[in-house]
Amino acid sequence: MSRPRAFDETDALRTALLAFWEWGYEGTTMAVLTETTGLNKTSLYRTFGNKEKLFERAVQMYHRDFLAFRTEALAEPSPRRITERLLTGMASLHNAPGTPSGCLETTAALSAGPENAAIRAMMSSNRDAIIPLLTARFGEFDATELPRGMSAAQTAAFVATVIMGMSVQARGGHTRDEMADVVRSTLLLWGD
Questions:
Q1: Mean pLDDT in order along the chain per 10 residues (192 residues)
Q2: Whereabouts does the entry annotate DNA binding, in residue ranges (predicted)?
Q3: CA distance readout (Å), 57 to 19, 50, 52, 143
Q4: What CA–CA distance (Å, rounded) separates 179 from 192?
């Protein structure tokens, strides 16, 4: 009969998620993971496979637990409201108490070197997935509801770029108030 686990797998995964968010994929070494989770290497490997599989599960948890607001944002009744809800949600996420600043996917993608090109590609793909979703959603509206002179695709690319820029700024120490200024400035595209 096998001995029951003496730890909560979900808690360990969440702790690993926060470590990856703080230090990126490469910076989160096995030493960091064992220290932060309190598990030894054998327990980590037995439970999660390897570091890459643990990271993939952490990213799934990140999407489920921290990015769910995007679904509600995309359901808003106008492109301006969609943008406002997305950016406000991101500003809150990037500066939330109890979590690292910035975005897990942006941090991981920007800090991954050539030996982790697959991780960088996965994070870039995950991060960029919002663009076709926004393009499709913005395309459901009349052109008069988009910023003047911008197509649905241009508006989506712009909003996604602002989201990514906000993550980098938050990582660099910008405050929630400064993020709120970015949100207000972006919304000026729709006029006063």
A1: 64 94 91 92 90 93 94 96 96 90 82 79 86 97 96 97 92 91 96 76
A2: 29-48
A3: 13, 11, 9, 39
A4: 19
The 10 Å Cβ neighbour count of residue 184 is: 11
Say if residue 112 is in the same domain as residue 92. yes
Residue 2 lies in a domain: no
Q: What tokens were used for 109?
A: 């993608």
The alpha carbon torsion through 110, 90, 170, 103 (nearest 10 deg) reads -30
Number of domains present in the structure of the chain: 2
Residue whose structure tokens are 């991101």: 90
Give the angle 101-90-15 at the CA atoms, nearest 5°. Answer: 45
How far apart (Å, rounded) are the C-alpha atoms in residues 77 and 18?
Answer: 34
Where do we find the tokens 């990514």? 164
First to last CA, the chain: 68
> Do 187 and 92 belong together in one domain?
yes
Looking at residue 67, its pLDDT comes to 93
Q: Residue 12 has what pLDDT?
A: 93
Task: State residue 1's pLDDT score.
Answer: 45
C-alpha triplet 76, 80, 82: angle, nearest 5°: 35
Identify which of 8, 17, 91 has the alpha carbon closest to the alpha carbon of residue 43.
8
User: Domain range for residue 81?
Assistant: 67-192
